[in-house]
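hiii so um. not sure if this is the right channel but i have a protein structure encoded as tokens and i wanna go backwards to a sequence. like what aa goes where. can anyone help
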């Protein structure tokens, strides 16, 4: 009799488990929010101090001026930018400065490091420089931006401008910038 009751209990227990249905878990998957201060679809406005050193209009020299720019990032990593540098260039063989304006358009590639609020970036593009000689140019460079807040950053970069012709004069100089960047 004990064996029969044990067998019936075992059969009832196994059949009740077979009709129990699917096991449902009450665990929820939580995805951490993106804490990066660098965003996709981000507009930026730059203001900076700009320097120059190298060869402009086939004359060696250096200079200093100001720069304004605007950038747009399609994704967190890829954007485009346009900036204008205006300043004075002092050729080594002349006593006074020459006014120079350099308008540049760039493709920007950045790699945000969210834990440090830092984004190193590369830029490549082209534009034109005006002064005693007007000439088209290409440029390549890189820099780094540190975001103090989600909307305010400090940046430093440098690019090498190259181009010109023998009739206009060779262009080969560095264009470093240090400034503030406002992101929207």
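sure thing!! here u go:
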């Amino acid at each position: 009799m004990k064996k029969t009751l044990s067998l019936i209990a075992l059969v009832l227990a196994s059949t009740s488990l077979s009709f129990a249905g699917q096991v449902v878990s009450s665990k929820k998957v939580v995805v951490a929010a993106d804490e990066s201060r660098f965003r996709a679809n981000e507009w930026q406005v730059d203001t900076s101090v700009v320097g120059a050193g190298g060869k402009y209009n086939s004359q060696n020299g250096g200079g200093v001026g100001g720069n304004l720019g605007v950038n747009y990032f399609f994704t967190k990593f890829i954007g485009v930018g346009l900036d204008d540098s205006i300043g004075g260039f002092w050729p080594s063989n002349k006593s006074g400065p020459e006014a120079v304006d350099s308008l540049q358009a760039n493709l920007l590639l950045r790699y945000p490091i969210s834990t440090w609020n830092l984004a190193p970036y590369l830029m490549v593009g082209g534009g034109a420089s005006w002064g005693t000689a007007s000439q088209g140019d290409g440029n390549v460079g890189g820099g780094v931006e540190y975001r103090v807040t989600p909307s305010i950053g400090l940046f430093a970069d440098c690019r090498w401008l190259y181009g010109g012709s023998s009739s206009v004069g060779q262009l080969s100089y560095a264009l470093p910038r240090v400034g503030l960047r406002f992101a929207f």
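oh and The mean pLDDT is 87.
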